[in-house]
Amino acid sequence: MTSPGLRLDARPDVVYVPDTELFTTNFSFGASSYFWDFGDNGTSTDFSNPLTSIRLKARYDIMLIASDDHGDGAICSDTLVRMVVARQGGSTKVPNAFTPNQNGPSGEFRLTAPSTIYSYLS
Q1: Cα separation of 23 and 15, whole Å?
Q2: pLDDT per residue as tens, the chain (122 positions)
Q3: What is the rounded CA–CA span in Å between residue 83 and residue 62?
Q4: pLDDT of res. 106
Q5: Half-sphere exposure (Cβ direction) of 121: Cα atoms closer than 13 Å
Q6: How open is the CA angle 21-19-9, to the nearest 5 degrees?
Q7: Are 65 and 77 in contact (CB under 8 A)?
Q8: Which of 26, 103, 105, 121 is deepest in the core (most CB within 10 A)?
Q9: For domain 8-88, which CATH number applies: 3.30.430.20, 2.40.50.140, 2.60.40.10, 3.40.50.620?
Q10: Cα–Cα distance measured from residue 94 to residue 26, given in angstroms and rounded to the nearest whole number
Q11: Burial of 93 (0-12, 13-18, 19+ CB in 10 A)
């Protein structure tokens, strides 16, 4: 019995939060089931190339476990881990229009940065 052949790619290897998507590509072979763990409580069992968005800056270990059931309880598995770093610096989408509600103006719109608060009160 042989273990599955594992190959994966995770791009980019540095993502900028809060909005950069992480693309994964599974080049593995010889397995009947796959389990992805993105290191941020996100998981997938797709063989194909799952997509995830990392929201917090940190170091993440992207893990792929491939298993093959040979029958009679004989299961061969292999695990591969790739590191991805999430850094602050992504863009934030800001609305350019507001919808009035029945009580009058839309309310409050606020942008918050680590040491500065910008506020627009309608």
Answers
A1: 10
A2: 677 888 888 888 888 887 778 888 888 888 889 999 999 888 988 877 888 888 888 999 999 999 998 888 888 989 999 999 999 886 666 666 666 666 665 556 565 555 444 444 44
A3: 6
A4: 57
A5: 1
A6: 20
A7: yes
A8: 26
A9: 2.60.40.10
A10: 35
A11: exposed
Task: Give DSSP secondary structure letters for the chain.
Answer: --PPB--EEEE-SEEEETT-EEEEEE--BS-SEEEEE-SSS-EE--SS--EEE--S-EEEEEEEEEEEE-STT-EEEEEEEEEEEEEE-------S----BTTBS--EEEEE-SS-EEEEE-
Mapped to the 3 state alphabet, what secondary structure does 5-39 carry? ECCEEEECCEEEECCCEEEEEECCECCCEEEEECC
